[in-house]
Amino acid sequence: MFVRALTSARRATLAVRAKHTLPDLDYPYNALEPVISSQIMKLHHTKHHATYVAGLNAAEEKLKAAQLSNDVQAQVAIQPLLRFHGGGHVNHTIFWKNLIGESQGGGQLHDSALKNAIDKQFGGKDKLSSHMNNMAAGIQGSGWAWLTLNQRGELDVITTANQDMAASVGHVP
Fold first, then answer.
1. What is the dihedral sign for C-alpha 141, 145, 151, 152?
2. C-beta separation of 63 from 72 below 8 A
3. Is-above-0.85 flag for pTM?
4. pLDDT digit of tens for each residue in the chain (173 aa)?
5. DSSP string of the chain?
6. What is the 3-state secondary structure (H, E, C) of 119-138?
7. CA 26, CA 52: separation in Å to the nearest integer?
8. Is residue 153 left, alpha or beta, with left meaning phi > 0 and alpha meaning psi from -120 to 50?
């Protein structure tokens, strides 16, 4: 009886889950010119990121169908799609939130706890940038280089493959 009630409650929860949507940017596509062109920004946002959103929604629909039919094998098989498309959506959402044009202070590192931690742990912004570029260059195929907080609460530069999230290895971007 309890399992049947739990399954019914789970089905009701699945039925009301909202679809993921492409987030609006907080700035116009040309805000990062000349560093990143408006054409590249628009393509990356409206096509590339949108593909992850559509893939995540499709994977969640497949998962919902597999859960409703109690198809455990299908539920397990869908996990890589959820990880890839979910990670792509989350990673790109973080990416957009961390970009800012030079006219609004982008590229500047003002006196703050973050600046102090970067100076202490990496020897300054330029050395951090060089270190991140070197880490990113070592990625084979696709992936991400992240400035994160590790589990000790210290800044760290890590890489993740494909669309894996920094949180998947216990770090906070």
1. positive
2. no
3. no
4. 444 444 555 554 555 579 999 999 999 999 999 989 999 999 999 999 999 999 999 999 999 999 999 999 999 999 999 999 999 999 999 999 989 887 888 878 889 999 999 999 999 999 999 999 999 999 999 999 999 999 999 999 999 999 999 998 899 99
5. -HHHHHHHHHHHHHHTPPPP-PPPPSS-GGGGTTTS-HHHHHHIIIIIIHHHHHHHHHHHHHHHHHHHTT-HHHHHHHHHHHHHHHHHHHHHHHHHHT---GGGTTT---SSHHHHHHHHHHSSHHHHHHHHHHHHHT--SSEEEEEEE-TTS-EEEEEEETT--GGGGT-B-
6. HHHHCCHHHHHHHHHHHHHC
7. 19
8. left
Q: What does the block give as tokens for 132?
A: 């991140």
Residue 35 has which token pair? 């560093």
The tokens of 84 are what?
Answer: 């890839």
